[in-house]
Design goal:
The protein has 393 residues and is α+β, with helices and mostly antiparallel strands. It folds into two domains: 6-262, L-amino peptidase D-ALA esterase/amidase; 270-389, Roll (Ubiquitin-like (UB roll)). 34% of the residues lie in helices and 28% in strands. The protein contains eleven helices and 15 strands. The protein has helices at 46-54, 75-93, 114-126, 133-139, 192-204, 242-262, 281-293, 295-303, 308-317, 345-355, 382-389, and strands at residues 6-11, 23-38, 59-69, 100-107, 148-156, 159-168, 181-186, 210-211, 221-226, 270-278, 328-331, 334-338, 341-342, 359-365, 371-378. The strands form two sheets. Strands 1, 2, 3, 4, 5, 6, 7 and 9 form an eight-stranded mixed beta sheet that branches. A seven-stranded mixed beta sheet has the order 8-15-10-14-11-12-13, with helices on both faces. Strand 5 and strand 6 form a beta hairpin. The longest helix is centred in the middle third of the chain and has 21 residues, at 242-262. The two termini are 37 Å apart.
């Protein structure tokens, strides 16, 4: 990966337990245009509140993130830790405190041990010369079983730039946003207003289109930094290179979002839910998310039970406009029902074979309009219960 002007570092701060890197730093050599999307939960972690204030000016230069402790529901002591962490990083890097983003992930309701962070910051800053983005991806993992990374290059005005990203997330995955952290960096020069617009659109079609278990977190953060060090002509809305930039960001975010679903806690299936023929996009998204979040549908996927009726039931209660006499359903290319009527035992046998696959597509046509939406989900397994029954231990 060739991306200019960014450096990375990770250290072991033993925030939850010793034996792994759990504190990470991303630093841009120059101030970067920045945009972020945070959890819509009314219960927001201290780092979310601090970062939201800091990024209001549209620029950032550093990100410090820890795993093992969410610093959520920790009151004023938690806010103090988040603020003081950004102050220490700003001082060590000789940048403004408002240029520092701070993120946390892990157990909710436990005070974050500030001294472990403050004692680790000198080594964290010193390590910027030798770290990698992959190191950061590994340091932010909690119940993830693998680090999640993606990178893609494009060109603007004949100058090549790169968009790279990492993410963490496996459980409590549900918009808006999912329980996840994702950090996107690019050396492209991008107009800040256009960056905001392109990024929010990409988030809506990727991280806001996945669900593992229907739960939302207190810490969800998705951040993009564009430092311009590729020295390309500035990409603005309507410029010749705007579409390519948007497409590249979309591609990176969607790839990361799919990796989160594939790593869903205990998941054995990756399922693409496509809804077409809806009144509009909002109705299509509403129906798709109802299917993807249904525990009955997800357990049927796990059991490889072609119980198509559960899918129609989810459409019915989703709030989307629907007429059961117009509904059709496919598992991959197998028609399970048409015009609201069961396609027969042979179709069920073939549909069951589709559900034995690790990845498949469920397509529902509402038969009403032209609205379409796609979301991504996993099955619901015994292992999911086991993981979350003793998460804090």
């Amino acid at each position: 990966m060739n991306i200019q002007g960014f450096s990375f570092s990770t250290v072991e701060a033993a925030i939850k337990k010793p034996g792994r890197k759990d504190l990470a730093l991303i630093f841009s050599e120059v101030p970067a245009a920045a945009a972020a999307v945070f959890t819509t939960s009314s219960v927001k972690a201290a780092p979310v509140l601090v970062s939201r204030d800091h990024i209001a000016g549209g620029t950032a230069q550093a990100l410090i993130v820890n795993s093992g402790n969410a610093n959520a529901c920790t009151g004023e002591p938690g806010m103090k830790v988040a603020r003081e962490t950004t102050a220490l990083i700003a001082r060590a890097l000789d940048i403004d405190m408002s240029a520092v983003q701070v993120c946390s992930t892990g157990v909710i309701g436990v005070q974050l041990p500030f001294e472990r962070i403050s004692n680790s910051i000198p080594a964290l800053v010193d390590g910027l010369t030798c770290g990698t983005l992959d190191d950061v991806a590994q340091a932010i993992m909690t119940t993830d079983t693998f680090p999640k990374m993606e990178a893609c290059s494009a060109a603007a005005g004949g100058v090549t730039y790169t968009v790279a990203g990492i993410a963490k997330g496996a459980g409590m995955i549900m918009p808006n946003m999912a329980t996840m952290l994702s950090f996107i960096i690019t050396d492209a020069a991008v107009d800040p207003a256009f960056l905001q617009k392109a990024f929010r659109t990409a988030v809506d079609r990727s991280f806001n289109a996945i669900t593992v278990d229907g739960d939302m977190s207190t810490n969800d953060t998705c951040l993009i930094l564009a430092n311009g060090m590729a020295a390309n002509p500035v990409i603005t809305e309507g410029s010749p290179d705007a579409e390519a930039f948007t497409s590249t960001v979309n591609s990176v975010l969607l790839s990361l979002a799919k990796l989160i679903v594939k790593d869903g806690e205990g998941a054995t299936k990756f399922v693409e839910i496509r809804v077409s023929g809806a009144k509009d996009y909002s109705d299509a998204k509403r129906a798709a998310m109802a299917i993807a979040n249904s525990s009955l549908v997800k357990t049927a996927f796990f059991g490889q039970d072609a119980n198509w009726g559960r899918i129609f039931a989810a459409v019915g209660y989703s709030g989307a406009e629907a007429d059961q006499s117009l509904l059709s359903l496919h598992f991959d290319d197998v028609c399970m029902a048409s015009k609201g009527v069961y396609a027969g035992d042979d179709a069920e046998a073939r549909g069951t074979e589709i559900l034995r696959k690790k990845e498949f597509t469920v397509t529902v046509d509402l038969g009403i309009g032209s609205g379409t939406a796609t979301v991504y989900t996993s099955d619901l397994t015994h292992e999911y219960v086991s993981i979350n029954a003793d998460y804090r231990s």
